[in-house]
Give the backbone structure.
Amino acid sequence: MRRIAVLTAGADSPGQNAAIRAVARNAFQHNYEVMGVKNGFKGLLHEDIFIMDSGTVSGILPLGGTILGTSVGNPFQEKEKIETLKQILHKFSITALVVIGGFSYMKIASQLDKEDIPLVAIPATIDNDIPFTDKTIGFTSAIEFVAHSLDRLHSTASSHHRVFLVEVMGGGTGWIGLMGGLSGGADLILIPEKTYTLEQIYEHIESRQSNGKEFSIIVACEEVMPPMENHTYSSKKCDIINYLYDNICSNCSFEVRKLVLGHLQRGGAPSVSDRILATQLGVEAVEMLKRGEVGKMSSIYQGKLCGIDLNKIEERKKVDFELLDIAKLFY
Ligand code: F6P
């Protein structure tokens, strides 16, 4: 009997449960035994492992978060933890790991692959920043939430002729801001891949006003750089929105409101497309193991289901600037 272990690592994302379910169900179909690892790599190193059966994954398709729990950080920066991991895999007769997580965890999977630990990986993060994937599991759920939030803000912003500053997640890349902003009709999108001046922002709001648009919805990604020299901005997340708010309030006559969408973007049920993506990638991960293809990430890339060598994952995937140009048409 071959035995695999599945874990979720790093930030959760909607659709991870659908991926766990797909891995388990396809594995059972092919007579693998499946162990669930609680709380990511840290749980694995604590041998927090249990045998899964079809009941474990029953009813989890529409659930947000991860039934396995998760943890952040890379415990394998300490070399001896890799030896501990190998011993644990041997002790539990685990022949391969399935690692579900975001960019940093694809890198950890790659690190473990280089240490001859048999594994496959599944890209799951709301940030959509993993290269060689069209979309990561959780991304469409997050941008749907952003779009629906902007829809709601439009009615109140237009009624009160206000400027709304909306901070979105995404880490160091602007995918959530760009695609959430594009689909929610944002009037300006500030992404970390670009730099801005406060003057550009004021002028933009003013030119909208002079064109008869008496409200503006500005989407700012959480890691946008402060748009001015001599600023008092600290790199702590969530400060960008306060920085913009203070400056726009003190330099412009507009009435301004701010909000941080925060972890609401990551919580809740997965979108239909995330459920489908997670199911495809989870099933494919087991197919890769059946074929003996370890050291790969299950992916849909350029429209095709495929396995990507984990050692190809180096930099985070940058936003599509052509889409930013399209978004600008509607500013
Ligand atoms: O990677 C997913 C993500 O939600 C990022 O968009 C965000 O920067 C980060 O995680 C927030 O992490 P935490 O839940 O630790 O605040």
